[in-house]
Amino acid sequence: MRDETIEKIKKIQFLLAAGKTRPEVAKTIGYGHVTGLYHFAARHKLIWNDKTKNYDAEGNGEIIDGAPKSEELPTGRTAGIIAMFKIRAIPSEIIKRYRFDSVSQMAEYMKSKGYTWDDDIENYVLRNAEASQREQKSEITDLLAFLNDNKQRLIGLLKQTEMPSETLPRYIIPGVAKVKSINLSSSVDSLVQEYSREYNISQKEIFHIALVEFFKKYGYINDVRATLKI
Known about the structure:
By secondary structure, this protein is mainly alpha-helical.
C-alpha cells in the first residue's frame, strides 16, 4: 500500500472520529459524491463499524498495513479518542463512545498504543522512542530493587515456608526451672522440631514465647507485665 493511500485512510478515519458524516468526509477529501468514498473503502478493505461510526482496517481495525510503526499516526479508536479531546469532549462521553469502563482503562489502552497524556495541550501525544525506553528501563530497575529488597521473603515463599516477619521476642523468665510434661499431637511436635532447627531457636524458647504471647493476647497482659517487668 502506497504512503499517500495510507495517509488518505488515516485522514478519513480521523475526520469520522471527529464527528463528520461520510458525505462530509467525501466532500472534504475531494469526492463529488459519497459513493466515491464507498468505492475507495471497498478497494482497500475498510470495514464500516457501526458502533464507532468509523472504518476499520480489515484484520484488527487499528493499524494500517504498511504504516511505519515508529512514525505511526493515530488510526481507529486511537484517532477517535484524540479527535474527541481536540474538540473538547468530556472524558465520560469519550469512554462511553469507545466502550471503556473508566478513564484509567482508556489511559492504559492509549499507553499500549504508545501514547501518553500531555497536560499542556490536554490530549494524548505519541511518546518518542527514547522516552519510552527510559520509562521501561526505570520500571525494570524498580522491579529489580523490589526483588532484591524482598529476596529472603521470596525464597521463603518459593520454598513454601515463611521467614519470621520480625525479630522474635526474647523474654527473661524469672523463677526456678520446672519439668512439665504435656501431650502434643505428632504433627504439632513435628512443627516445633522443624522450626527449632530451621531458625536456630531452642524448643524451650519456642514454648516460652508462645505462652507469653498467649497470656498477653488473651486477658493476662497486666500479669505478664508484672511478672516479667515489661
